[in-house]
Structure formats: structure tokens, C-alpha cells
Amino acid sequence: MPDTISLKNTDTGIVTEKTFSGPSGPKPKRMISPRNIMLYGTLFVAAAYYLLPLYVMIVTSLKGMPEIRLGNIFSPPLEVTFEPWVKAWATACTGLNCDGLSRGFWNSVRITVPSVVVSIAIASVNGYALANWRFKGSELFFSILVIGAFIPYQVMIYPIVIVLRELGIYGTLTGLIIVHSIFGMPILTLLFRNYFASLPQELFKAARIDGAGFWQIFLKIMVPMSLPIFVVAMILQVTGIWNDFLFGVVFTRPEYYPMTVQLNNIVNSVQGVKEYNVNMAATILTGLVPLVVYFVSGRLFVRGIAAGAVKG
Fold first, then answer.
1. Domain for residue 267, yes or no?
2. Which residues pair with 113 in a beta bridge?
3. Do 145 and 246 belong to one domain?
4. Could you write out the three-class secondary structure of 181-202?
5. 132 and 245 in one domain?
6. At residue 137, does pLDDT exceed 80?
């Protein structure tokens, strides 16, 4: 039933009546509905699909071998032990050497850090130049870079081996750093170019009118405004380089093998007893760095990847 209320104007003394039909606006949605059940059910299944293997890896890495042989892979450990983690890091055999993943970890750090810095530094300047400083043939150059982002790595392995051999850096960390930097260039340039093109052109034009040059605009205007896309580039490069196996095993020698190659040697060892707890601990240790990087900077990653996406 509609409600009627009388309102009196204190200045004129006139009384008016107004009718209210009750609350307006959209009807509140129910928390439990077929749509919500379907949505959250799907999300739960997807989360379980990805988290269940991780759970099995963690609980297995905390068990001793006698308990693993019982076959209850989903049960939590009856007696927690960190010995598999210590062995995976310090004493597991990765071929002729039995120093665990520790050597491979520091090799991966020595490979990843300079590769990420060099590739991002060059790609950011490339993207900035292609977005704001058009030159003759810039579109052709950009098209070649885009094509290069989708060429299979396997096609170019043998020619790169020959080039690195002729330069005298095949089998060294320097050669592998150069390879990672070059292969990261096309996709990073694409992301930086699209991000810089989305920034207000008025800022660039105003800086040009004030007399700022190429590097002044880049370092003082573009870089401070581009933190999200730099985080995206860092996450992509850290994840890709740290998890790389192919380049690490092809372009380096055993003493320079990254962590992933040493993990493969531990897991696929055919000598002695198969220690599943050590294998699981080694796998988690290998994937820990990119996982931490992503969780620390995940929100900036989403912002940057949306702003630097390919626009039609």
C-alpha cells in the first residue's frame, strides 16, 4: 500500500500531501542463487585443479621415504621432516656433482638479473621511440619485431650456436644472457610501444615545446609514469628466463647449468633409489622465485598488461 504524508510550508502555511510507493531501485540479489552457485562452483573446481598437485608436492616433500611407500599421497605427513629440502638444496646429485640445487640457483641468478635488466632497458627505449619519435621505416621495423615475437625458438637454435661459437662465447653465461635478452626484445617492445602510445600525447608535446630532448622526456616523464608496464616486463622476463630449460641446456656447459637443468638431472636420475620427497622439494625450490615475484607485484601486473595489450 502506498503511504501518504502531509508537508506544511512554515512560510506560507500551505499544507501539501505527497504519496510514497515504497523503496525504489533494483531488487537486491540473493546471495544463494543458481547463477552464484554455478559461478563459485566453477571457480572452486578450477582452484582445486591447480592447488591439488601443489598440495601433494608439499606434503610429499615433508615425508620420509618409509611413509611415502605406504602410498597415501593425499594424507598429511605423520612426522614432518625437512631433510628432503636440505638434501635437494645441498647434497642431491645433479650429474657428476652432488652439491644440490645451490650452484644452479646462483647460476640462474647470474643469468636472470642481467638478462632482465638489459632486455627491459633496450625494449623500453625501442617502444618509446616507436610510439613518440616516428622515423622513416619505423612501421616496417615494428612489424619485423612483432613477427619475431612469434617465431619458434627451435628454428633459430642452430644458427645462434654458430654465431656464439664464432664470437667465442658459446658455453658461457655471457652468451646465454645475450640470447635471453634478444629473444625477450620483440614481445617487450610490443608491450612498451602500446603502453607509451596510450599515455597523453599532450605531455610529450609540452615537453618538446619546453625544449626537452629524447632522453630527458624518456627519463623524467615516461619512465615515472610507466611503473605498471615495467613490472609486467619484469615478471614476464623473470618467469620466462628462470623457468627456461632449452636455452640453458643448449648454450651452456655443466658448470653453468641453471636451476631447471639441474632439477631435470635430479628428477630423471636413473641411479640409486627414486627419492620422491627430494624430487618434490627440488621442484618447489626451483619454482619459488617466479612465484614470489608474481605474488609481490601481481596487482601492478594486471594493470600493466591491460594498458600494454595489443590494440586494434
1. no
2. none
3. yes
4. HHHHHHHHHHHHHHHHHHCCHH
5. yes
6. no
Alpha helices, H only, the chain: 34-61, 65-68, 83-90, 102-132, 138-148, 153-167, 173-198, 201-209, 214-217, 227-242, 246-251, 259-267, 276-296, 298-307
Same domain, 54 and 172: no
Question: From residue 280, how far is each of 11, 20, 33, 207 by CA, in Å?
Answer: 83, 67, 41, 55
Give the Cα separation of 287 and 264 in Å (integer): 13
- Are 163 and 69 part of one and the same domain? no
Give the domain range for residue 60.
Answer: 34-81
116: left (phi over 0), alpha (psi -120 to 50) or beta: alpha
Q: Give the residue among 63, 82, 83 at the shortest CA–CA distance from 71.
A: 63
H or E element in which residue 15 lies: strand 15-20
pLDDT score for 87: 92
Quote the distance between the C-alpha of residue 203 and its chain's center: 30
| Higher-confidence position of 274 and 107 | 107
CA dist 190 and 150 (Å) reads 12
Assess whether 216 and 133 both reside in one domain: yes
Residue 273: per-residue pLDDT: 75
Q: Which residue did the predictor score with more confidence, 277 or 146?
A: 277
Grouping H, G, I as helix, E, B as strand and the rest as coil, residue 4 is strand
The dihedral sign for the CA sequence 268, 173, 103, 258: negative
Q: Does 71 have pLDDT greater than 90?
A: no
* DSSP conformation class of 32: S
